[in-house]
Amino acid sequence: MPLSDLIAALAAATGPSRELDERMATEVFGSVPRGGRNISMNTRRLYTSDLHAIWGAIDERWQPMRVDVSRGRGRASEATIVDGGARCYDGKGPPGDDGSIALCLAAARLAMAEQGDG
To answer: Which domain range does residue 45 map to?
Structure first.
């Protein structure tokens, strides 16, 4: 699936999703499902519900990047990834999000830009 579909799904997410976690693993971080089993542990990470998991995956793939996350009670979370060229990739999560979904959205936008689609 194109990353634009993943971005749309993340933007519409109202909470954590194992389906979106698996799509992040395969479409953004490059885990490859093989024969019902995944050759990378990344597909087991809960990117959409664990801020440390998504932040760590971003560090592994794109270090060094500046990552900022803001969150507040009852309001949408926001995340920004700034690459070395000072280009920003933003994401906004639903109210109650710890920043995980917002950061997933920013990472998917960065991956899409790398492919020349963003």
So the answer is: 3-114
Give the Cβ contact number of residue 41 at 10 Å: 9
3 state DSSP class of 66? strand
pTM of the predicted structure, to 2 decimals: 0.85
Residue in 1, 116, 117, 108 with CA at minimum distance from that of residue 54: 108
Number of domains in the chain: 1
Dump pLDDT digits (tens) for 56-87: 999 888 877 889 898 767 778 999 999 776 67
Q: 62, 83 in Cβ contact below 8 A?
A: yes
Question: Tokens representing 79?
Answer: 């995340």
CA distances from 73 to 27, 41, 97, 116 (A): 31, 32, 9, 36
**Lookup result for tokens 């492919």:** 115
